[in-house]
Structures are given as structure tokens and as C-alpha cells.
Write a structure and sequence with these properties.
alpha/beta; TIM Barrel; globular; binds 6-O-phosphono-beta-D-glucopyranose; Glyco_hydro_1; Glyco_hydro_1_AS; glycosidase; GH; 6-phospho-beta-glucosidase
Length: about 475
């Protein structure tokens, strides 16, 4: 028997973005605010997240403000007005696939309307048509860290079961509308991290005292998202035969900090809390180990009689993941910087790895390990839909951006991904985060750049918005043209 020596021929090379980080036009053509557009930018010099500012006061203040400067996700990189130019640049690199998300609040501005906003639907028609013109396959996220703020204010978002019907009215609308244009879909971006914070449960956490109360709220909200995701999968298969629905996991690869069995057990526990999400969405049922976790944390998930059947009947077609870093886990309670990014309270620095300026540990081999782990566990097609490195880019004296650090990061990850393919992993494609500079999710900075294309815009929202290819642009073009042979 033989094994694959490289990537399959129809491999989906491309890049990924999200509505609230690129579009701008937050109050144009009928659109209203989404949760993401109510998150303030990080204070100067603060590289950590500001995601948890979820008090009713802060949300009300945001809703009453029309400042783009304070809330940078309202301006994004102005893709709304630059999409033709941007897609042409991606086509020039030879993109086979481009991942965007639909802003739910562009289609149902408050979230609870019964008829959609036609102008919002028309925008994505134009975007998908533009992609099709260049044979670029759209990959579409239905909810990327956001929902209409109207639903947050009305019933605290996913804290309420009502969100399921509002979400599935939205998904049915877009499946019907784009049925001839979009084949690859996914429901919730990074469902394991997106379930926390106020885009998921409104300001409710603010009133809770204990960690267990917060966990109860989050896991209940998550349950509603699981059910909504399965119902959307059912709809998709009925409305667009042959279309594929994915779940999306922020894969937090972790290693035991030492071979002390106590560290190994803790690493396994932490790892299961990451894999739990895909256990439900791929296998269609809550795994046994969560029973103990729920009991020990005083969590009871309220379910309707047929929720479990719905999960079992409509699992996803593929598993997509983001991969940025790995962590190491120790049995001791620690408070290490990496915990900020990984969400792992037991994370410690791995002395074998370097970090990005934002403290994310760079670990290309971790991607191979992640892919093999997921393939071994699920035997379902995998799709890397985010991978990349945030960096401070400088325009050199010759007027160009020489981003060799970005090339090295991506090259090393693609090499390891190729190893995983040789190991037998069935991989659908590779999308970098993000092909064009955009507003960072965790810090809302423009200066945390990921793109092959530079966008002239700074952290205060000043700039011409002009687009310019960096060195990595030409490098990635060559990678795609050679199907990953010429790295
Ligand atoms: C992923 C998210 O977690 O990481 C993206 O899906 C995000 O929305 C990306 O932008 C990079 O993170 P950040 O915080 O550097 O923008």
C-alpha cells in the first residue's frame, strides 16, 4: 500500500476573514450593530484582550455611541467598499477558496425581524459573484463571534433558547438565497472560545459571583448553539443537496509540561475540554467524561426531549479548525501569560518554543500533531481554516513590506501540514488568517497585521485604505501555483 506524497489536487488554498474585522459600513444599507462592533479597542500598549467588558452599562454605552475610533470593528478595513479590488488581489495570488462570514446583523438587523434586509442580501450576492468570476470557492461562516446586538439586549443572546429560532430563520434565509453560489459552510467560528464573552450571553455574567455559575450559563448557552448548529445542518442538506457543513474548533494543542503522570493527567483533562466541542458536533453526543465535569462544577444542562436526537441525527460533514499555537500544561495552578491566549489555566511556557510579539507560542509541529490527533479521533475530513502570525509590519525605505518572518512562519506550518497528509490525514484545504490586513479580534488593533496585502490604516483609524502586496504575497502565489511543492 502506498501513501500520499503531497497535497491532493483539488486542495483548497486560500485565506480567511470575518465580517466584523473587515467590512466596516456598520450602519449602512439597513445594517445595525452586532456584538463585535460594541467591543472597545485595547488601550495603547495593552496587547491583551478587552473582550470581557460585558456589563449592561458598557453595552448600553456602546449602543449609544457612533464612534468608529473607539470601536474599531465598525470600520474594519472597509471591505464593504473595496471587495472588488480585494478579491482581484486574492485571484492574482491564485486563491482557490476565500472564507468570509456573513454579518447576521446585515441580514436581520435587529435579529428578530421576520423578513430579511434585501440590501444586506444583495451585498453578499455581489461578493460571491465576484469570487465566482475568478473561480474562487466561497467558504462561509454563519456566525463569527457576533450576533445582532438587538438580541443581546432583548434576551441576552444565546443565554436564551429563543436564539435558536432567530438563528435558524437567518440560516434558512441565506441557504435559500445563496444556494447556487456557496457550497462550503460552517456554523459558529471557534465555538469553544466564542461561547464565552458577551457576544454569547449578554451582560448576564456580570451579575454572577462564582466561577461555577458562569460555567453553568456558558454551557447552557453552548447547548443552544449545538442544537442550532445541528438544525442548520439539517436545513442545509435539505435546501442545498451536496453542500457541506463544518464545525469550527480553535484547536489548542497542549503537551504535558513534564512526563510526571500528574502533568499528563492534567494535560489530558485540559485537552478534553477542548475536544468536547468536536466530540458533540462530529459524533453527535455529549461524551461521558463531561458528566463528571458537569457534576463537579454544579452544572445542569436543560434539554428538551428531542435535543439529543437532533444532535445525533445531524452531525457536521467536516471539521474545520484554527491553529495558531500550542501550550504546555502543568498540574499546578499557574498564572502564566500564555493562559491569556490559550484559555488554559494550567498553561506554562514551553521553553523549546519562541513566541510572537503577542506571546503566542509558535509551534509548527503542533499543527501536525493537532491534525493527526483529530483525524485519529474522528476520521472525518479536516480543513485548516485559520493559521497565521500577527506581526508589526514596517514599510521599508524602498516603499515595500519585507515580511520574511511571516513567510517563515507559514512555510514551517505548511511543511508540517504536508507531513500530516503523508501520515494519512484527509485534509480539504488550508486558509491563512488573514490574506489582507484587518482589525484584530482580541485587541482590535490594525497594527497586529496578518496579511499578504498591506492596508494603509493605523490603530486610530487613520490612513488612505490603500492596498499593497507584501513580499509574502508573491511567495504564497508560488506556493499555490505549485500545490505546496515550492515553499
Ligand atoms: C481567531 C479568530 O481566533 O484568531 C479570528 O477566529 C481572529 O477572528 C484570529 O482574528 C487572530 O486573533 P487576533 O486576536 O490576533 O485577531
Amino acid at each position: 500500500t502506498d501513501y500520499p506524497k503531497t497535497f491532493p489536487e483539488n486542495f483548497l488554498w486560500g485565506g480567511a476573514t470575518a465580517a466584523s474585522q473587515i467590512e466596516g459600513a456598520w450602519n449602512i444599507d439597513g445594517k445595525k450593530l452586532s456584538g463585535a462592533e460594541c467591543i472597545k479597542g485595547a488601550k495603547k500598549g495593552n496587547i491583551n484582550s478587552t473582550l470581557d467588558d460585558a456589563t449592561l452599562r458598557s453595552i448600553t454605552e456602546a449602543v449609544n455611541s457612533d464612534s468608529e475610533k473607539e470601536y474599531p470593528k465598525r470600520h474594519g478595513n472597509d471591505f464593504y467598499h473595496h471587495y472588488k479590488e480585494d478579491i482581484r488581489l486574492l485571484a492574482d495570488m491564485g486563491f482557490k477558496a476565500f472564507r468570509i462570514s456573513i454579518a447576521w446583523s446585515r441580514i436581520f438587523p435587529n435579529g428578530d425581524e421576520l423578513t430579511p434586509n434585501e440590501k444586506g442580501l444583495e451585498f453578499y450576492d455581489r461578493v460571491f459573484d465576484e469570487m465566482r468570476k475568478y473561480n474562487i470557492e466561497p467558504v462561509v461562516t454563519l456566525s463569527h463571534y457576533e450576533m445582532p446586538i438587538g438580541l443581546t439586549l432583548k434576551y441576552n443572546g444565546w443565554a436564551s433558547r429563543q436564539a435558536i429560532s432567530d438563528f435558524t430563520r437567518y440560516t434558512e434565509t441565506v441557504f435559500r438565497r445563496y444556494k447556487d453560489k456557496v457550497k462550503y459552510w460552517m456554523t459558529f467560528n471557534e465555538i469553544n472560545t466564542g461561547t464565552t464573552g458577551f457576544h454569547a450571553t449578554g451582560a448576564l455574567e456580570d451579575g454572577l459571583k462564582t466561577e461555577n455559575e458562569k460555567l453553568q450559563l456558558r454551557y447552557q448557552a453552548l447547548h443552544y448553539q449545538f442544537v442550532a448548529s445541528s438544525l442548520a445542518t439539517k436545513q442545509l442538506h435539505e435546501i442545498i443537496p451536496g453542500a457541506k457543513m463544518g464545525c469550527m474548533l480553535a484547536r489548542m494543542q497542549t503537551y504535558p509540561a513534564t512526563c510526571n503522570p500528574a502533568d499528563v493527567v492534567m494535560a489530558q483533562k485540559v485537552d478534553r475540554l477542548n475536544l468536547f466541542f468536536t466530540d458533540v458536533q462530529v459524533c453527535g453526543e455529549y461524551p461521558e467524561y463531561m458528566n463528571r465535569y458537569f457534576a463537579e462544577h454544579n452544572i445542569t444542562i436543560k434539554m428538551l426531549a428531542n435535543d439529543q436526537q437532533i444532535l445525533k441525527k445531524y452531525p457536521v460533514d467536516y471539521l474545520s479548525l484554527s491553529y495558531y499555537m500550542s501550550s504546555a500544561t502543568t498540574a499546578k495552578e499557574v498564572n502564566d501569560l500564555t493562559a491569556e491566549a490559550t484559555g488554559n489555566q494550567h498553561a506554562v511556557r514551553n521553553k523549546y518554543l519562541k513566541t510572537t510579539p503577542w506571546g503566542w507560542q509558535i509551534d509548527p509541529q503542533g499543527l501536525r500533531i493537532a491534525l493527526n490527533t483529530l483525524w485519529d479521533r474522528y476520521r472525518t475530513p479536516l480543513f485548516v481554516v485559520e493559521n497565521g502570525m500577527g506581526s508589526y509590519d514596517k514599510i521599508s525605505e524602498d516603499g515595500k513590506v519585507h515580511d520574511d518572518y511571516r513567510i517563515s512562519y507559514l512555510r514551517a506550518h505548511i511543511e508540517q501540514m504536508k507531513e500530516a497528509v503523508k501520515d494519512g490525514v484527509q485534509l480539504m484545504g488550508y486558509l491563512t488568517w488573514a490574506p489582507i490586513d484587518l482589525v484584530s479580534f482580541s485587541t482590535s488593533q490594525m497594527s497586529k497585521r496578518y496579511g499578504f496585502v498591506y492596508v494603509d490604516l493605523d490603530d486610530d483609524g487613520n490612513g488612505t485604505l490603500e492596498r499593497m502586496p507584501k513580499d509574502s504575497f508573491y511567495w504564497y502565489k508560488k506556493v499555490i501555483a505549485t500545490n505546496g511543492e515550492n515553499l
